[in-house]
Amino acid sequence: MSILKLVVPLVVFFYILSRYKRNSLNLCAFPLMFYLGKNIYLNTEFMSYYFAGLKISSADIVLICLSLCYMYLRNNASTKPYRPSKSVYAAIVIYGIYILFQVGYTYLLFEDVPETDIIFAVKDYLLLPASYILWVSIFRLFSHSQILDFLHTIAFCTLIAAPLYILSGLGLPIYPYEKYLVYSSGLVRDFLTLPKYIILAIAYYLVCRRHNISWMVIMAILIICALFSFTRWVTGTALIVLVLLMIDSIIHESSLISKLKLPVLAIFMLLVGYLGLSLVSPGALSHFSDRWGEVINKGAKTSNLLVRQEYLLTGYRTLTTNLDLNPLFGRGLLKLEQDSYRTVYEGRFDSMVGRQLMILGIVGIICIFSIILFATLRALRFSIFSGEFNPLALIALMIMVEVIVAPFFSPGIMWMAPARIMPIALVQVIARPKKDGA
Questions:
Q1: What end-to-end distance do the CA atoms of the chain give, in Å?
Q2: Could you point out which of 114, 184, 323, 357 has its C-alpha 20 to 30 Å from the C-alpha of 379?
Q3: In the chain, how many domains are there?
């Protein structure tokens, strides 16, 4: 498979380069490939360097690259008029102010900790407002059609990588990396090589493609890829995306046939994905059905959901039962590994919310989810509840579903990285005057 290690990154690189020639916004797709990482044989997702004693993470590198892209793009494009959401902007500002407050709060709690540790800690949390401002500044330079073209570039790169992930899931030695979990049947469940933009790709191809044979093949590949994650929050998010498409079609299409066309096609694609998986790997289908069967039959009693519930309760109990912790403001920005509370989760951080509840406190969690709530409501307003079909707004709404769900089921603050903030910034440019020609 050594040939794939060379061919796949080159194919992705030259594809993005070819797209850049027709739309300069596609330049920003290059740094986003950091998060496809090992899925396209690039060991970039967890890159880190030290500069003047400060750790530079992959998220920092992506942010720096996007900043360079913006400085170049602003000299080659003019700012487009748009109507941003004041509520989303206000929520971002309040969050930024709260993080700055946390700097002083953390310093008071950990007077003996080096200032560089606090600086590095606050840097991670300021990625959210910094990424948001940068993405909005970039998107303002382009029309809706150009932004959709940019999303197409990311979706197609994901489509290139999806078959590799499926083959790896079947147990074939596609990737030279250590696997997360190998089942007795030989199936592989892996997170490091999971295409990070699988939900974005599904959303884009559902909304912006002609519904022909090639579209059916593309959707079958993406749906099977999502199923091969063997991860219920990924497949559950994909199902919600399909439901949103059905609702939008029923509301905005005029004729009965048009209203039923997309819902029927969506159900058909689910069946195609289901049958395709049964043909490719009956064992995978059986395993996946068993995992979802637990949820259907046992609900919240499944061990997987109980673990997440316990993480939230543990974080809350730790805040409210320890006299040296403030439930409102948490225990400071320093990582849990740096103090005695590291044992609370025993190294298993499968829920970002539970962990950040301890670090940022109740106020911090409210600040974060206020941003998500206002962004989601805006996406709803200009997609499903608008008087006309808005493909960019609908895609933004679909991606926001992942932003809502992921913090409860994924570790750390990976979702805060520049790639994860992009949907929130996208929501800010979905409403523009019609004279913009977007």
A1: 43
A2: 357
A3: 1
Question: Which pair of structure tokens corresponds to residue 225?
Answer: 């890829």
C-alpha pair distances (Å), 155 with each of 41, 74, 150, 342, 397: 17, 24, 9, 38, 16
* Residue showing tokens 């159900």: 267
DSSP reduced 3-state for 57: strand
Confirm if 158 and 36 have CB atoms less than 8 A apart.
yes
**Residue found by looking up tokens 């994901």 in the block:** 158
Residues spanned by the domain of 320? 2-436
- pLDDT tens for 89-106 read 999 999 999 998 988 888
Report the residue count for the chain. Answer: 438
Amino acid symbol at 108 = L
- Taking only the tens place, the pLDDT of each residue in 370-411 is 999 999 999 999 888 887 788 899 999 999 988 888 777 765
Q: How far apart are CA 131 and CA 312, in angstroms?
A: 27
State both tokens at 419: 């790639």
Q: Please, what sign has the CA dihedral across residues 211, 203, 389, 250?
A: positive
- Spatial distance between the Cα atoms of 210 and 66, rounded to a whole number of angstroms: 31
pLDDT grade for 315, boundaries at 50, 70 and 90: low
Q: Give yes or no for a contact between 195 and 32, defined as CB atoms under 8 angstroms apart.
A: no
Quote the CA–CA distance of 35 and 174 in Å, as a whole number. Answer: 19
